[in-house]
Amino acid sequence: MKKINVAILGCTGLVGREFVRLLDGHPWFAIACLTASARSAGRRFAETDPPGPDGTGVAGRLVVRETNAAAVVASGARVVFSALPAAAAGPLEAELREAGLRVFSNAGAHRMDADVPLLVPEANGEHLELARRQLRRHPGFIVTNPNCVVSGLALALKPLMGLAPRAVAVTTFQAVSGGGRRGVAAWDILGNVVPFIAGEEEKVGRETRKILGAVSAAGVRPDAMEVYPSCARVAVRDGHLQSVGVEFARPVDGDAAAAALAGFLAEPQRLRLPTAPSRPIVVRPEPDRPQPRLDLRAGAAIQAGRGRPGEADRHGRAAGMAVSVGRLRPQGKRLDFFLLVHNTVRGAAGGSVLNAELAARKGLIPGVPRG
Ligand SMILES: NC(=O)c1ccc[n+]([C@@H]2O[C@H](COP(=O)([O-])OP(=O)(O)OC[C@H]3O[C@@H](n4cnc5c(N)ncnc54)[C@H](OP(=O)(O)O)[C@@H]3O)[C@@H](O)[C@H]2O)c1
After folding, report:
1. CATH superfamily of 148-342
2. Does the predicted model carry a pTM greater than 0.85?
């Protein structure tokens, strides 16, 4: 199979660098174009500040372009991975869709558009139907992944949907990297907890309900579940820890809930997508897990051809793609637990690459054989 040329927008940011790591040497995609702001343009990726993680790979030798639609189209890219701030991403992603490109975006700009899928492949892969609908009105499409908190939360809620959850309360302990390279000043966060992240709680509510909702003629009918988020920034480098309490219609059996979480498999695992973890949810039995330092890189790749879960992942492609869940505490109709999601991997670049892999296997990116 000839690899499909892709562009990474915002390649010098925290999410952009994860894209470069995951896409340099990807079995289906080849990096043809890297863009950033005018500050970084003109330098080889390996010479950007801090030096790119893949300085010796193909991407390291590419010259970073200033972000604009003409540069992306001229590069021959057919697929775009966007790690731009929302304000820059909104109009540009729409322009690239009109140029016939398949856009996979981390930015918030188009997440709530009626015809744009907000995708967590294991939770709502069927929402890719919306991308198919976009292709009837545009030459390309936009697919988004959710806010980094929601990427983990929606994934952990999915196997519990059969137990009829009515409401979820979530308190977050979010890493500094969630705010981007220039996000939080060291002086404000070292030795501190900031119990406010602008716009975050609103996103957690509406995005969770959209992902767990059903595709309708008008777009997506959101799930009726009540969501009560409280978001805080803590002095952790990577990894968003969340304290989750789910309320059900009936008393919940803790063993059944643990089995549903630990045994959960979905389309990305059945299709053996290159970035899919063999188990999307890892249930930790220890009394003091998950922890960002110990569990950040949870996730083992599915070995091509053999499909045996849990084997060594030579490329580290699935590391950080599993959500860790622990301290499961059933109390009547309520189930409490902690979960940890790697915010720049499953919560951003890795989630977006998995979205593209699923779209490709569903025939939405010509050139990749259907699964
Ligand atoms: N960090 C996370 O955990 C996370 C999780 C989920 C989603 N997201 C979303 O992903 C996107 C990227 O986040 P990030 O944390 O990687 O941010 P970041 O570290 O601040 O990186 C932003 C990138 O965009 C470029 N850029 C900034 N302003 C631009 C402009 N006006 N025109 C063109 N390029 C511009 C920057 O280039 P220079 O280096 O040249 O300035 C850099 O490459 C955001 O939309 C964010 O909300 C982030």
Report:
1. Dihydrodipicolinate Reductase; domain 2 (3.30.360.10)
2. yes
